[in-house]
């Protein structure tokens, strides 16, 4: 797993088309936004290019220099936001913070490095702004970023699964047909895209009680199994 | 699961999210998902001298894995309910 921003030069159509995606591993193109400038750190904007949002990463390809492009994986994007305050940045943009390998370093040093504009070390870039010429697209882009960020949870979490929700009883009875890959959390109604304001405290208590019932059911089933063995 | 449910009850409330890179952002909690990704609205940076360029963003998505602390409104904590829920969670796991 490589953190941070990196160069991206693999284009279709002999180097002039869109990005070549890792479709073998399920990468899908979610959205293309033409006429987008990119701002790395405190450097001047680089224009114009096309923004490609895929299910795994954000790719920007220059329209001017066909050899120029940048990409960052969604799991390296710590934060993204819609910035419309001219004091924060003159043009409305999507503001992102990038978690980089060199994140422990002193921020101020790094920014002055970027400002001097001598050598750009992409792995040290911690801020990126994407400035679409059509500012009315900002909210749509923001929502797409949110959607894709959710498609990319922490890799570690994914490997471990959610085994911790199983009780010892359940683990002992793995052969009883219980799906060990059962995902407790995969409830599409809990997507972050939805406002959850209708869930009051009572609702939470109810939810927790429902969960408890699930465990009780499992125990009852275990007891049933035991009695059938006797 | 517990904190997911818990944070959902704080939707609409003002919270401060402190990131592992020391940035602290205050805003209205818009939503939270099962990975504890957090969406804030009407955000502002707490330490504006240090992060002047982030003075204000309209809405903000914060990846759950980069959150260090979430500061809650004092009256947003139902201690009894949280105690009870924590015990249930411990028993269930």
From TrEMBL, chain A:
<protein>
    <submittedName>
        <fullName>Chloride conductance regulatory protein ICln</fullName>
    </submittedName>
</protein>
Automatic annotation (TrEMBL), chain B:
<keyword id="KW-0747">Spliceosome</keyword>
<dbReference type="GO" id="GO:1990726">
    <property type="term" value="C:Lsm1-7-Pat1 complex"/>
</dbReference>
<protein>
    <recommendedName>
        <fullName>Sm-like protein LSM2</fullName>
    </recommendedName>
</protein>
<dbReference type="GO" id="GO:0046540">
    <property type="term" value="C:U4/U6 x U5 tri-snRNP complex"/>
</dbReference>
<dbReference type="GO" id="GO:0000398">
    <property type="term" value="P:mRNA splicing, via spliceosome"/>
</dbReference>
<dbReference type="GO" id="GO:0071013">
    <property type="term" value="C:catalytic step 2 spliceosome"/>
</dbReference>
<dbReference type="GO" id="GO:0071011">
    <property type="term" value="C:precatalytic spliceosome"/>
</dbReference>
<comment type="function">
    <text>Component of LSM protein complexes, which are involved in RNA processing.</text>
</comment>
<keyword id="KW-0508">mRNA splicing</keyword>
<dbReference type="InterPro" id="IPR010920">
    <property type="entry name" value="LSM_dom_sf"/>
</dbReference>
<dbReference type="InterPro" id="IPR016654">
    <property type="entry name" value="U6_snRNA_Lsm2"/>
</dbReference>
<feature type="domain" description="Sm">
    <location>
        <begin position="2"/>
        <end position="76"/>
    </location>
</feature>
<dbReference type="GO" id="GO:0000932">
    <property type="term" value="C:P-body"/>
</dbReference>
<comment type="similarity">
    <text>Belongs to the snRNP Sm proteins family.</text>
</comment>
<keyword id="KW-0694">RNA-binding</keyword>
<keyword id="KW-0687">Ribonucleoprotein</keyword>
<dbReference type="GO" id="GO:0005688">
    <property type="term" value="C:U6 snRNP"/>
</dbReference>
<keyword id="KW-0539">Nucleus</keyword>
<dbReference type="InterPro" id="IPR047575">
    <property type="entry name" value="Sm"/>
</dbReference>
<dbReference type="InterPro" id="IPR001163">
    <property type="entry name" value="Sm_dom_euk/arc"/>
</dbReference>
<dbReference type="GO" id="GO:0003723">
    <property type="term" value="F:RNA binding"/>
</dbReference>
<dbReference type="Pfam" id="PF01423">
    <property type="entry name" value="LSM"/>
</dbReference>
